[in-house]
Amino acid sequence: MKKNNLKINSNMLVSFKSQSEISEKNLKLVDILDLKNPAKGSLGDWKISEIKNVVKIFGKEKMISATIGDTSDLKEVIQKIKIFDELELDFIKFGVFKKNTKQMLKFLSDIKSYNFKTELVPVIFVDNKITLDTAFKNLESFKKFKFNFLLLDTFFKKGGDLFYNCSMNYLSRFLERSSKFGLSVGLAGKLKKSQVPNLLKLKPKIIGFRSAVCEKNDRNEKISEVKLEKIYNFFKSAKS
Hints:
Layout: E1 11-16, H1 24-29, E2 32-35, H2 48-58, E3 63-67, H3 74-84, E4 91-96, H4 101-112, E5 119-125, H5 129-137, H6 139-144, E6 149-153, H7 162-165, H8 168-180, E7 184-187, H9 196-202, E8 206-209, H10 225-239
Parallel strand pairs: 1-2, 1-8, 2-3, 3-4, 4-5, 5-6, 6-7, 7-8
């Protein structure tokens, strides 16, 4: 089985909290295996040894992404990316917490100056309106710094979901503006099964799930194969 190279839109990303959740069935239903530990925060990181193990077992057949943790400190972010850059991942996700344009552009520029080999994905948290609007106004700069992807997500998992923070109209404009600069956008953030048809209409590059595919819709519970398959079927219908 070859890796999905993301040429099409609406790729399904699912966050796994441990290797034990990656069953044979679950593996078939997702386009991107995302390694994220919800117990450690919004972008909670896995142990390095466990990431290496998953990449070794599944890296040839699935695209794999991993989060570096909720750190906002530039030195710490670069240090973590340096370590993750050696793990043969397809994507490394890191948070962007800067609120004004000058801070955000310096942060992105400093990270990109290292020429990491792994595809880096800046995560913009939609529940921080100032950061979100700063990112929206500076989408051209993300591309200028050679970022190819951007992910919109929620930081406060006990707060509202993506659609609570952003209207369909806003998301549509964000995606349209991003595509002008050749920037692919992923959408995540406490997404619900009922929201999948609207998400698919937007045609983002990636749609990410955790709580919606878990028992009791709780991101800290284990993944339910039944829930995952129900969401997968929406994607299957859209692609066919």
